[in-house]
Write a structure and sequence with these properties.
By secondary structure, the chain is mainly α. It has two domains: 146 residues, Peroxidase, domain 1, CATH 1.10.520; 127 residues, Orthogonal Bundle (Peroxidase, domain 2). The protein is built from 14 helices and two strands. A two-stranded antiparallel ribbon has the order 1-2. α8 packs across α14 and α13 crosses α14. The longest helix has 16 residues. The radius of gyration is 19 Å and the shape is globular. The two termini are 35 Å apart.
Length: 310
Amino acid sequence: MMKFSSLVVFFFIFPIAFAQLRVGFYSQSCPQAETIVRNLVRQRFGADPTVTAALLRMHFHDCFVRGCDASLLIDSTNSEKAAGPNGSVREFDLIDRIKAALEAACPSTVSCADIVTLATRDSVALAGGPSYSIPTGRRDGLVSNSADVALPGPTISVSGAVSFFTVKGMNVFDAVALMGAHTVGQANCGLFNDRITNFQGTGRPDPSMDPALVSSLRNTCASRGSAGLEQSTPLRFDNQFFKQIRKRRGVLQVDQRLSSDRQTRGVVARYANNNAFFKRQFARAMVKMGAVDVLTGRAGEIRRNCRRFN
């Protein structure tokens, strides 16, 4: 559970929006809302445990464009969903199923933005990650443009990656913890193929990558076209990601750089050595991220269909 002192910190970071978000926002208007979300996520997780990575990706990609407003869910030829970096985002059908169930129980009450936030939280817990209370009360955005999508790529510098988070009110502990979500992530081999074949035009693999991992990834990419970002427990939410990058087993270049960069290597070491500390920090960072540029009160709308504006 989130302690009051943590909530005070979040309030000062996001004073207006966070003040209007609260744990149990739907306790009167739709008391079964969080149970409905949790049950449908559990059902989906039972069929495909990679849903955790998919929902984390959806949540991140939504929140870091126009804030956590479900603008990513809109179907349109020029919406955020149509932008290149979002081509690999999936599980929109799960959000549709949850929304349909909530509309049947409590019409026009629970926002799509809150559905994404709650579903992500529940999927993390199912994968062995932290279970935490998260404030709700977000409203859905009225704008979704592909031109607004500017997300960092796998070769971004560590300072660039950290800045991506800090401009949204988070710190280096938050940034590294949230990047630790790669412990359950998957990536298309095209995002790191140069590291295992022809790094920076040298004709050889990236020397910072463990040769055994190079060989393993070559085999995996030849047969599947994608690979887990953490190779030891790819479906389990734990701190193995940090342990692995300290052994030169980071798949993405930016992930590997976290373990050696002066700004982040100490944080990586702390997370690698203390799984409970990592999970606690991850939960705090997720609550912070969930408050980024949210719409509350009378702003935005409560969509009846997550794929379309009302």
